[in-house]
Design brief:
- It is a single chain.
- The chain is mostly beta strands.
- The chain has two domains: 26-247, no CATH class; 250-393, no CATH class.
- The chain is 6% helix and 47% strand.
- It has one helix and 30 strands.
- It has one helix at residues 2-23, and strands at residues 28-29, 31-34, 71-76, 84-90, 100-103, 117-118, 121-122, 126-138, 141-153, 159-165, 167-175, 178-185, 205-209, 217-218, 223-225, 228-234, 240-245, 251-255, 260-267, 270-274, 280-284, 286-298, 304-310, 317-320, 325-327, 335-343, 346-354, 360-365, 374-378, 385-389.
- Strands 19, 20, 22, 23, 24 and 28 form a six-stranded antiparallel β-sheet that branches. The protein has a five-stranded antiparallel β-sheet with strand order 2-11-12-13-14, with no helix packed on it.
- A hairpin with a 5-residue loop joins β9 and β10.
- It is flat.
């Protein structure tokens, strides 16, 4: 009898541990990649635009520059204690482009021990560098990161340094027993991969789907995978991810025009795509911003028309609260404007479509852009009456 009780006790303990293991997923590790043209790998990106200065940084050991007028800039990153790394641009030839780059890749606040990176391409106005390696110190040891940079200078006084991420993590992970392809990208180009923000441009990007999918989301508090909500824990350097099924999440409803067939919104909770039923959808409580919306209908001839609104303005923020319905005025009507300009005796006209939040509107017919509209110009006395066709381009 004692032995039988002992056996049952062991079985119960094992079942408890197995259940706990099923709910708490271990960290899953990803592989690092870098490239010059990260956009070709299917990612968008926002840039940093560091201020360019001519004064040499105080107290910094500098290399022997080839020119007499090197320039300097700080790349901002929370991955170092100071919050930034210095970079310097130099010229191979006195009157040539700034085609040499130094960056404090080992974080020791000096540039004299760095090897100059030569621009892989230059033109009349720009020099392109990358991917340029930087090494960070993290808990598990050194972590590699890459930057792509473009220095631009016009014939006038305009000059700018564009800094974007040149690396990303990806690999196969297991979610609820199924294999998925995971990709992490440092969208805001600051060296970390777990940034979340109410502003989409300051949020990093994540994909967890099939390898060929382009379903990119904002990094946030949640991510929906096959209809199940998870809380992602992303390593700051992007090397690994841990997913925990979200429990006890509070939701609120959003009311949209019934003509809206698809709607997406993002914020610190992540990016969510809804297909409302009778104009109603639900989101976890929090602050969001309209990302895009779609509206479809057929005309009397059976042609399928589709309106797409994409949010690029600073408008479109809204709150979702528990047990309360939030109404959002998107969709129709849209505003069509016509602008005219005169230059060197030539009149130019431009038509523009905007939504109620200032979003850009795209109109398609059966999946293609419809024929451009026409413009009729008629004089007051009727002696001039002609119709012109707009042309895209």
């Amino acid at each position: 009898m004692v032995n039988r009780k002992y056996i049952w006790l062991v079985v119960v303990i094992c079942m408890v541990f197995l259940k706990a293991g099923a709910l708490a997923q271990d960290e899953q590790w990803l592989q690092y990649h870098s490239a010059r043209e990260v956009r070709l790998a299917g990612f968008g990106s926002s840039y940093q635009y560091p201020e360019i200065i001519t004064e040499k940084p105080a107290g910094m050991e500098l290399p022997q520059f080839k020119s007499e007028d090197p320039i300097f800039a700080k790349w901002l990153t929370p991955m170092v204690k100071s919050g930034y790394l210095w970079a310097a641009l130099d010229r191979t030839h006195k009157n040539g482009p700034y085609d040499l780059l130094y960056i404090d890749s080992n974080r020791n606040n000096r540039l004299d021990d760095e090897t100059a990176v030569t621009a892989y391409r230059t033109d009349q106005y720009s020099a392109f560098f990358g991917p340029v390696k930087v090494v960070f110190a993290v808990e598990d040891g050194p972590a590699m990161y890459h930057l792509n940079l473009r220095y631009y200078s016009s014939s006038g006084s305009t000059r700018r340094l564009y800094v974007s991420s040149g690396g990303w993590y990806e690999g196969e992970i297991t979610v609820n027993g199924a294999k998925k392809h995971c990709v992490l990208f440092d969208y805001n180009s600051n060296g970390t991969f777990n940034d979340k923000s109410p502003e989409s441009g300051k949020s990093d990007r994540i994909r967890i789907s099939e390898k060929t999918s382009q379903d990119t989301r904002f990094v946030g508090n949640y991510i929906d995978i096959d209809g199940v909500l998870y809380r992602p824990e992303i390593a700051r350097d992007g090397a690994c991810i841990k997913l925990t099924r979200a429990e006890g999440v509070k939701f609120g409803n959003i009311r949209l025009p019934e003509s809206v067939t698809e709607f997406s919104a993002g914020g610190e909770n992540g990016l969510f795509t809804l297909k409302p039923e009778n104009g109603i959808g639900s989101l976890p409580i929090g602050k969001y911003r309209v990302n895009n919306w779609f509206l479809e209908r057929k005309d009397e001839k059976g042609a399928q028309w589709k309106l797409a609104g994409t949010q690029y303005s600073n408008n479109g923020y809204f709150d979702i609260t528990e047990n309360k319905e939030t109404e959002l005025a998107i969709g129709e009507p849209i505003v069509a404007t016509l602008s005219a300009s005169l230059r060197e005796g030539t009149h130019s006209f431009n038509q523009n479509l905007r939504g109620r939040y200032g979003e850009t509107i795209t109109l398609t017919r059966n999946g293609a852009r419809p024929q451009a509209p026409k413009l009729n110009i008629k004089s007051k006395d009727g002696t001039y009456d002609r119709t012109y066709s707009f042309q895209y381009g």
